[in-house]
Amino acid sequence: MTILSCENLKKTYLSGEAKVKAVDGVTLAIEKRSFVAITGPSGSGKSTLLHMLGGLENPTSGRIDFQGEALDRYTDDQLSILRRRRFGFVFQAYNLVQELTAYENILLPVMLDGGEPDEKHIQKLIDCLGIGHRLDHLPGAMSGGQQQRVAIARALANKPAILFADEPTGNLDGKSGREVLELLRETSVETGTTLVLVTHDLRIAEQSERILRLEDGRIVFDSLDPLAREEEGAGHA
Ligand SMILES: Nc1ncnc2c1ncn2[C@@H]1O[C@H](COP(=O)(O)OP(=O)(O)OP(=O)(O)O)[C@@H](O)[C@H]1O
Ligand SMILES: [Mg+2]
What is the CATH number of domain 2-236? Predict the structure, then answer.
């Protein structure tokens, strides 16, 4: 079953006089509970695509459907609720709230939603991520890798239907990276979370069920459908 799909998705930025086609016609359907890795060179549009799929940025054109409902039919309030309750997001630059401690950051989405935190679940995330001894620290007093792990705990605290993560192991050493990957996979099985990860990390790509490669804002490779995508890419050139 498809949980998220997009059709001919485009995002154009104006940079002075020049137009930058960050995402240039992406069509895609993501299966529920699947694990998708998005790869591609720097500047190929990975973060832009992820932000649009996660309802954080509006496309210039095209449509996105979550469980068969077009995102552009949601009001701003409905979209915020959808993002808080159903989506988890790990940003490339973590985006932790600097004035809040690690623990407060982790609880923030649950609190904003007026919900009761599932303390057992959150404690498990904290243990798995090895951040128990940093819970009282402000982000400014944590290393990049520690902030990254806090951001991952925050994104999973609500047991999202989809986790969007932008380079979630980018700042971690080999061992921590493997542990994070393990946690993501376990969580995905336990809470039925679909994983959509942007990554340069070959270990992640290898463990995923599907690898997409972006170049110049277009999908040039899809491991589910390699031949069709190659033709599509060639047709554009
Ligand atoms: N807010 C913006 N304004 C103008 N141009 C932008 C903006 N955000 C992204 N771009 C441009 O869009 C293109 C795609 O950027 P994006 O951040 O999606 O790439 P990426 O694949 O995530 O790269 P990286 O691997 O370096 O994170 C780039 O050419 C970038 O310069
Ligand atoms: Mg990026």
Answer: 3.40.50.300
How many residues would you count in the chain?
A: 237
**What whole-number distance in Å separates Cα of residue 182 and Cα of residue 105?**
22
State residue 40 phi and psi, 5-degree precision. 140, 160
Is 181 exposed, middle or buried, given 0-12, 13-18 or 19+ CB atoms closer than 10 A? buried
Task: Express each pLDDT in 132-147 by its tens digit.
Answer: 999 999 999 999 999 9
Under a CB-based contact definition with an 8 Å cutoff, are residues 52 and 59 in contact? yes
Dist CA 70 CA 19 (whole Å): 27
The protein residue whose alpha carbon is closest to atom 18 in ligand 1 is 45
Residue of 92, 97, 198 lying closest to 142 (CA atoms): 97
> Which position has the token pair 């949601």?
74
Question: Could you report the per-residue pLDDT of 37-66, keeping only the tens digit for each?
Answer: 999 999 999 999 999 999 999 999 999 999
Q: Please, what is the end-to-end C-alpha distance for the chain in angstroms?
A: 32
What average pLDDT does this structure show over 61-73?
97
CA 123 from centroid of its chain's CA atoms: 22
Q: 166 alpha carbon to ligand 2 midpoint, in Å?
A: 7
Domain boundaries, given as residue ranges, for the chain: 2-236
Q: Could you tell me if the CB of 5 is within 6 A of ligand 1?
A: no
Q: Are 65 and 141 in contact (CB under 8 A)?
A: no
Closest ligand relative to 214 C-alpha: 1
